[in-house]
Structures are given as C-alpha cells and as structure tokens.
Amino acid sequence: MADETQSDETRIALIKEVLSRIERDLKAFEKDLEELNNKLDEYVLKVLFEVHKEQLDTRIKPLERLLYGLVALVLAAVVTALIALVINGGGSGAVPS
To answer: pTM score > 0.70 for this model?
Structure first.
C-alpha cells in the first residue's frame, strides 16, 4: 500500500510538472501570437493604404493641377509687371519728352 501511495504521489508530481510546462509553453505561444497579430495589423494597414492611395490620387490630382495653375498665373503676372516696369523706365512717373 505504501508503494502504491508513493507511486500515486510520483504520478501526481509528474502530472503537475507537465501541466506547468504546458502553461509556460501556452504563455509563450500567446506572446508570439500577439506579436504576429501586431505585425499582421501593420501589414494590413499598409495594403489598405496602397489600395486607397490610388483613389486619393484620383481625387487630389485635379486640385493639385488647379493649384499649380493658379500659382503659375500669379508668377506670370509678377514677371510681366517687372518686365513692364523695366521697359517703362523704372516707374518714376516722369514722362519722357
């Protein structure tokens, strides 16, 4: 009977050790799974950005062209005014006779 109880205690101790190893491995697996999940979220965000980037480009390109056109128009007006100023004698207001 004593051998049987010692054998049972040994089995229980062995089962406890195996359970503790399983718990430790499970915690490590959960940690690895969380890291992989974070990487997957980052990858999915990049893929979604690339898909929506084309849509954004089609919406922004016309506005960008309009803005560049307006800037070019203002610069052309400034350059034309400077050229006219140089040709007319510096804008001193004196009328050449």
So the answer is: no
DSSP assignment letter at 92: -
Model pLDDT, residue 91:
56
Per the CB < 8 A criterion, the answer to whether 85 and 91 are in contact is yes
The answer to whether the CB of 89 falls within 8 A of the CB of 96 is yes
Dig out the tokens for 20 from the structure: 């503790």
Q: How confident is the model at residue 62 (pLDDT cuts 50, 70, 90)?
A: confident
Nearest to 9 by CA among 23, 1, 22, 24: 1
CA distance linking residue 5 with residue 44, whole number of Å: 57
Residue type, 4: E
d(CA 79, CA 87): 12
Mean pLDDT rounded to a whole number for the chain: 85
